[in-house]
C-alpha cells in the first residue's frame, strides 16, 4: 500500500471540525435529565420544526431512537412490518424483539430498492383474526434505506404506503437516520418525507460531522412517553448541550450533503467504467456486486482503500471528510491495481 488511506467505510467516520468543536466548547449547558439544558432544548425545538413534528427528543444514538419509538408503539407480542434489510431488523441486535417486545415480519423490495408496493403491504397486514392470532400494529419505514444502497422513497410512494397502513389502523414509525440525505436528493424539505407518520428518528452523525446524537420526534404525548423510555434505557445525560451544540451545527449543514451525493455518482461511474457491477446511487452509498466480498475488501485494503460489507456487497460511502481528489485517487488506485 502506498499513499494515504481513503476511508469509504461509512459516513459515520466524519470528525467534528474546528467550527463544530468551538460550538461544543462554548455551549450553554444545564442538567438535561432535570430538563433544563438550553442547548438540547433548542436542538429539539429546531429538529421538530424541520421534521414537521410537534415535538422531538434528543437521544445518544439512532438505535436508541428507534428502540424508544418501537417500545412506545408496540405491545408485547405485536407484529410489526419492515422492508427486507431494514436497520431495525438487521442492525439493532434484535432489540425490537428483545426489548420492545415486537414480532418482526419482512416486506420485500418489489417497488424498487428499499420499497414495497402498497398492495404488498396490504396483503401482509391481512385482516384482523380471532384473539389467538398475531396482531399487526406497526409499520416501520426507512428513508433512505441503508442496505438498499441509500435508496430514497419519494413523497408520493410514501403517501401510498401511509394510506394503506392508516386504513388498516397501523401506527407508522419512520427510521430517518439519513432523512437529510433523502431530502437533499429529492430536493424537498425533510418534513415532506414525514407526512402522516406517528414518529420519526433522525441522525446527526451520518455525514454531517457531529460525533454523537439523534432525535426521535412525534406528538407531544409521544415525546413524554419517549423521555421516560430514554431514561429507562440509560439515555438520560446531564450537560448534554455539549453534544447538542454539534448537532445544531450539523443541522445547518444539511444542504452540503449534495456534494457527497455527487462524489458517490462519480465513484459509481468510475467503478462501472472499470468493470464493476454498480447501480447508480440515489444518495451517498455505493453498493458493488463482487464474486467474493472478503477477497474484494482485502484487495481494496491493499490499495489503501477502506470499505465495508453490506447486504452481500461491497459498500462505499462518501462523506464530508472526503474530497473530489480522494474520489479520483481511489479510482486511479483501483485501475492501477486491477
Structure description:
With 338 residues, the protein is α/β, with parallel strands linked by helices. 40% of the residues lie in helices and 16% in strands. The strands form three sheets. A seven-stranded mixed β-sheet has the order 2-8-7-6-5-3-4, with helices on both faces. It has a three-stranded antiparallel β-sheet with strand order 9-12-11. Strand 5, helix 7 and strand 6 form a beta-alpha-beta unit. The longest helix is centred in the last third of the chain and has 17 residues. The chain is globular.
Tag the structure with descriptive keywords:
three-stranded antiparallel β-sheet; alpha/beta; about 40% helix; seven-stranded mixed β-sheet; about 350 residues; 13 helices
Assign the structural class, choosing from mainly alpha, mainly beta, alpha/beta, alpha+beta, or little secondary structure. alpha/beta
> Topology as H/E string?
EHHEHEHHEHEHEHEEHHHEHEEEH
How large a portion of the residues is in β-strands, by DSSP E? 15-25%
Average residue pLDDT: 95
Termini separation = 14 Å
Beta strand count: 12
The main pleated sheet reads as: 7 strands, mixed
Shape descriptor: globular
* Unreliable runs: none
- Tally of helical runs: 13
Strand order of the largest sheet: 2-8-7-6-5-3-4
The helix content, as a percent range, equals 40-55%
Radius of gyration: 20 Å
Structure in a nutshell:
It contains 13 helices and twelve strands. The protein has 338 residues and is an alpha/beta fold.
Topology:
Layout: E1 6-7, H1 18-25, H2 38-51, E2 55-59, H3 62-73, E3 79-83, H4 87-90, H5 95-98, E4 103-107, H6 118-125, E5 136-142, H7 155-167, E6 171-176, H8 179-186, E7 199-203, E8 214-218, H9 220-232, H10 241-251, H11 257-273, E9 285-288, H12 293-302, E10 305-306, E11 308-310, E12 313-317, H13 324-337
Parallel strand pairs: 1-10, 3-4, 3-5, 5-6, 6-7
Antiparallel strand pairs: 2-8, 7-8, 9-12, 11-12
Helix pairs in contact: 1-10, 2-10, 3-9, 6-7, 11-13
Amino acid at each position: 500500500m502506498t499513499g494515504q488511506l481513503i476511508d469509504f467505510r461509512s459516513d459515520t467516520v466524519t470528525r467534528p471540525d474546528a467550527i463544530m468543536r468551538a460550538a461544543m466548547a462554548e455551549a450553554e449547558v444545564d442538567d438535561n435529565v432535570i430538563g433544563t439544558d438550553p442547548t438540547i432544548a433548542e436542538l429539539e425545538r429546531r429538529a421538530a420544526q424541520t421534521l414537521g413534528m410537534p415535538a422531538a427528543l434528543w437521544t445518544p444514538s439512532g438505535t436508541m431512537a428507534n428502540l424508544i419509538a418501537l417500545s412506545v408503539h408496540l405491545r408485547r407480542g405485536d407484529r410489526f412490518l419492515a422492508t427486507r434489510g431494514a436497520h431495525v431488523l438487521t442492525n439493532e441486535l434484535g432489540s425490537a424483539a428483545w426489548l420492545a417486545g415486537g414480532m418482526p415480519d419482512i416486506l420485500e423490495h418489489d417497488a424498487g430498492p428499499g420499497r414495497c408496493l402498497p398492495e404488498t403491504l396490504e396483503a401482509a397486514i391481512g385482516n384482523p383474526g380471532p384473539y389467538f392470532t398475531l396482531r399487526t400494529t406497526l409499520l416501520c419505514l426507512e428513508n433512505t434505506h441503508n442496505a438498499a444502497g441509500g435508496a430514497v422513497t419519494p413523497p408520493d410512494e410514501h403517501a401510498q404506503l401511509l394510506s394503506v397502513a392508516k386504513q388498516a389502523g397501523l401506527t407508522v414509525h419512520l427510521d430517518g437516520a439519513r432523512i437529510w440525505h433523502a431530502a437533499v436528493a429529492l430536493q424537498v424539505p425533510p418534513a415532506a418525507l414525514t407526512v402522516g407518520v406517528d414518529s420519526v428518528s433522525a441522525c446527526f452523525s451520518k455525514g454531517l460531522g457531529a460525533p454523537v446524537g439523534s432525535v426521535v420526534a412525534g406528538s407531544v404525548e409521544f415525546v413524554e412517553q419517549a423521555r421516560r423510555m430514554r431514561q429507562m434505557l440509560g439515555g438520560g445525560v446531564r450537560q448534554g448541550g455539549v453534544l447538542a451544540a454539534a448537532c445544531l451545527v450539523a443541522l445547518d449543514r444539511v444542504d452540503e450533503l449534495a456534494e457527497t451525493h455527487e462524489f458517490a455518482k462519480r465513484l459509481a461511474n468510475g467503478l462501472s467504467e472499470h468493470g464493476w457491477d454498480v447501480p447508480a446511487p440515489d444518495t451517498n452509498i455505493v453498493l458493488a456486486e463482487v464474486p467474493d466480498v472478503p477477497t474484494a475488501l482485502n484487495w481494496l485494503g491493499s490499495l489503501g482503500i477502506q470499505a465495508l460489507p453490506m447486504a452481500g456487497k461491497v459498500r462505499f460511502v462518501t462523506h464530508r471528510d472526503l474530497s473530489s481528489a480522494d474520489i479520483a485517487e481511489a479510482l486511479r488506485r483501483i485501475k492501477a491495481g486491477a
